[in-house]
């Protein structure tokens, strides 16, 4: 019923063959374990990065404290052909947010007439001669200017206030009475804040109106 191995050399060869198969199985198992460990580590790292990015996107919020529309030269809004030529928004970072780099921020400007992505332009480059002049901003640009002791290009502390300026005359040919627009501010972490601009139905004799 069972085959009898009479030759001692044959018995040794069978034992060596079994040992080789066993070693091969151990090596395969070790390699598989290494692959699983590396995969688990990679997935853990990706999950950690995703969690951090999600937390930043939720926490890093920009808030608009105040927003007004005005003309470039200070004349009455009702006397201009384009109405509001410049948007001026006072912004701050929300409580618990990290430092917000305004140079990396984008502003998505959307109205009934246009949809434009604006990128940051340093205020030192927005000049007419040697003087700061927001009317020099082009249609795909916005700039930021620190208020009091705040920095121009970042929101470092919750007390910081920065003025964000958009040349609406270039972006949207101005905003007239009753017009509206939406501004979506997206910072370096991907966090978004949306602000709706609503122009009063009449300008009256005002030089500046809240929007």
TrEMBL record:
Region of interest (Disordered), ranges: 111-136
GO biological process terms on file: archaeal or bacterial-type flagellum-dependent cell motility
GO MF annotation, one: structural molecule activity
UniProt keywords, alphabetically: Archaeal flagellum, Cell projection, Cilium, Flagellum, Membrane, Transmembrane, Transmembrane helix
Spans through the membrane: 16-37
Described purpose of this protein according to its UniProt entry: Flagellin is the subunit protein which polymerizes to form the filaments of archaeal flagella.
Family, as annotated: Belongs to the archaeal flagellin family.
Name of the protein this chain belongs to: Flagellin
């Amino acid at each position: 019923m069972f085959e009898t191995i009479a030759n001692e050399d044959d018995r040794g060869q069978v034992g060596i063959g079994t040992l080789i198969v066993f070693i091969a199985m151990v090596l395969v198992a070790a390699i598989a374990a290494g692959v699983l460990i590396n995969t688990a580590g990679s997935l853990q790292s990706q999950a950690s990065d995703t969690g951090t990015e999600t937390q930043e996107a939720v926490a890093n919020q920009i808030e608009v404290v105040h927003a007004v529309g005005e003309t470039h030269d200070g004349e009455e809004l009702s006397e201009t052909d384009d109405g509001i030529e410049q948007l001026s928004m006072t912004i701050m970072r929300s409580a618990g947010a990290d430092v917000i780099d305004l140079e990396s921020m984008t502003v998505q400007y959307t109205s009934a007439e246009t949809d434009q992505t604006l990128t940051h332009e340093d205020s030192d480059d927005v000049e007419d001669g040697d003087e700061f002049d927001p009317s020099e901003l082009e249609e795909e640009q916005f700039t930021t200017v620190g208020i009091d002791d705040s920095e121009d290009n970042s929101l470092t502390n919750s007390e910081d206030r920065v003025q964000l300026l958009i040349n609406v005359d270039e972006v949207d040919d101005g905003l007239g009475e009753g017009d509206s627009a939406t501004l979506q501010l997206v910072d370096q972490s991907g966090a978004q804040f949306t602000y709706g601009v609503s122009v009063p139905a009449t300008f009256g004799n005002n030089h500046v109106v809240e929007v």
